[in-house]
Amino acid sequence: MANYDWIVIGGGITGAALSYELARQGGAVLLVEKDAVLNGATRYSYGGLAHWAGKTPMLKALGEEGIQRYRTLSEELEADIQFRELDLLMPIAPGYDADGVEADMADCRIPPQRISVEAACELEPLLDPAALEQVLWVSHGHINPFLTALAFQKAFQRLGGSLLTGTVTGLCKQGDRVVGVEMGEVLHGAAQVVVCAGGWTRALLRQAGIRVPIYFTHAESVELNPTDLKLQALVMSAPAQRFELEQRSTRPDRIPLWDEPGQEPCPPILDAGVLQFADGSIRMGQISRVLTDPYAVVDGAASEAQIREQAGRYLPKLAHLPGQWYHCLVAFSGDQQPLVGSLPGWEGLQLFSGFSNPLAVVPVLARRFAQSAYGQADEWIPSLSPGRFGEI
């Protein structure tokens, strides 16, 4: 059985960034990713960096630290992650009061500003002014998350890290200590196992008999084929209903439903949004469903029609462009803060998952996690411990 200092489960952007940082600290690290080509939340992410959105002192500090890091990350990783800063336009969704939405964002690190419909259409000429009543604006960061994860993976390997493609089928346990992972009949040992499996974290640990306060939505989007039409801005309706959905679905009376198959603690929501990548492809979404079965089947054709209709209200020239519906799992915690650190009651097992707003803070939290693991005191990491939820 091979032995490592660290085994990181999940090679998306969270696992890749953390593996890289642990290797920078001198650790012997094995990164395990189930797919030869990433096919989870990293692959289907919008790539937005909402560094401006934090409302707590910690999230404000991490947002500032995060955007500064991204500005030099391509150079650090020796790869183009397609970082840019662009306009985020947030039309107020029907049924919401603009004053109330704006007031709710007043505590953000950088509060969005209300602008005129005319100004919004100057920033994004493809917008239909007839579909707009009130619009908020803020400067937003953006990366290609797939390329960024690959850049972290390659930088990790240059540091001597090991990347293995395959499925973790179980955890190796000795009493209440996790000592490695099982991949079929092959065992890999480690002093510490870190689960960065995103929306699959709950199922993976439950299979090992370990309860964890992490949940997931089924996120659905449509990827439009590359087009000659050029978007100048990111368009995302406000408020983001997904965060309210996460809060409702983890209320105390609904937590027991997560241990029952086939449950839907809350109805689905649709946050209409559109963003174009550098290759001309467009991500349009998104529906978020709270289904307790990670393998639940949804009606992709119906979802695609809903997404196209709602996003097409704002950008009608895009509504009927050819594309394909996609689906993935997105992890979150009960308080919209990530789960970072040791899982109570289990030695050798840690989490780095449950990011509701992942991309803006993942690189800086990965660095802080690794530095903390190697003896450097950190101001924020202890407050993100899964232990804050007490007994599960």
Which geometry do the CA atoms define? globular
Classified in CATH, the superfamily of the largest domain is FAD/NAD(P)-binding domain
What is the string of SSEs from the N terminus onward?
A: EHEEHEHEHEHEEEEHEEHEEHEEEH
Structural class: alpha/beta
Strand percent estimate? 25-35%
| Oligomeric assembly | single chain
Total strand count, please?
Answer: 17
The CATH class of the largest domain, by name, is: Alpha Beta
| Corresponding CATH architecture of the largest domain | 3-Layer(bba) Sandwich
Helix content: 25-40%
How big is the Rg? 21 Å
Largest pleated sheet: 9 strands, mixed
**Overall pLDDT, averaged?**
95
Write down the domain tally. 2
Which regions contain 5 or more consecutive residues with pLDDT less than 50?
none
Number of helices: 9
Keyphrases for this structure?
alpha/beta, single chain, 9 helices, 8-stranded mixed sheet, 392 residues, FAD/NAD(P)-binding domain, D-Amino Acid Oxidase, Chain A, domain 2, 2 domains
At a glance:
Strand 13 (266-276) and strand 14 (282-290) form a beta hairpin. Helices cover 28% and strands 29% of the residues.
Structure description:
Keywords: Oxidoreductase. It comes from Thermostichus vulcanus str. 'Rupite'. Residues 5-371 form the FAD dependent oxidoreductase domain. This protein is of the alpha/beta class. The chain has 2 domains: 2-78 and 145-213 and 335-389, FAD/NAD(P)-binding domain (3-Layer(bba) Sandwich), CATH 3.50.50; 85-139 and 215-333, 2-Layer Sandwich (D-Amino Acid Oxidase, Chain A, domain 2), CATH 3.30.9. It contains 9 helices and 17 strands. Strands 3, 4, 5, 6, 11, 12, 13, 14 and 15 form a 9-stranded mixed sheet that branches. Helix 1 (13-24) packs parallel to helix 5 and helix 1 runs parallel beside helix 9. The longest helix is centred in the first third of the chain and has 21 residues, at 57-77.
